[in-house]
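Task 17 of the worksheet. Students: predict the tertiary structure of the chain below and write it out as structure tokens. Keep your answer in the requested format; marks are given for formatting as well as content.
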Amino acid sequence: MTTENSVLVDGAVTRYLSAGTPGDPVIVFLHDGAWGGSADVTWSDMIPLAAANYHVIAPDMLGFGGTSKTISLDTSPFAFRTTHLFRLLDTLDITSPVHIVGNSFGGSIALRALTNPVFADRIASATTINGTGGPWKTPTMMELGAFDGTTDDARRIVGLICDNFDGFEEQVARRHTWATAPGHYQCMLAVHIPVPEAAQVARPDDPYPANLEGVTTPILLIEGENDALVESGWAGRIAEFVPHATIATMQLKHAPNITHPTQTWEIVSNFLTKSDISRPVATAPSN
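Model answer:
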């Protein structure tokens, strides 16, 4: 049974779903970053499948779902949410390495976390479902940036990320509910507020994905062959830096975890079973 929980993490109300048996290996599901993203929107049908063998933790990230609508504008959108994730795990007394499975933005966080020596040794494996870590977006991805608040527009957004499936309208309704929660709109658009030229500060160059080189943690890259939001072949480009990574393809759009949860979980479960996940995980090099 999936349980909805809420806990304070460094003062931020943090909603998370849990399932499975405490003491089993922990798997953390990270939701997408589209309008109305949340743990239940992205993972409700995969959590029960994973809970048979894993202790599942699926948080709403900062700015999303039932978690505080607070963000950090002086760091990358990945960095402060990664810190919040591991502080949540600390709060829940989960200190052993966890398996992270993320879709889209959540998958990008999983990959980015591997490059941070503070967190890398707390990750037993990382799976990303159409989350590239940031690069290789198509122009179609930009269409996800706008939202007029209506159910019809939520339907457009779902159509960009999901294949047609029986739960399409339920997905629209769920996503619209969270997309119109107080503060979510502002959190989504805050990073896009224009800054006057005189106030602009250059940020350091981003070393990703080259800073994945040397990471030995098991990695699964699931690429949707019908995904119009990221460039075809992105998984192979990442694998150039982590040649041990496993690549799986699905003839589906951006969120097969929503539309085809059983098929997606089978791929993830097989990867976890076959990977040598019990060995020590090397810490990522600092760059």
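Marker's comment: The domain at 3-193+208-274 is CATH 3.40.50.1820 (Rossmann fold). The longest helix spans residues 261-274.
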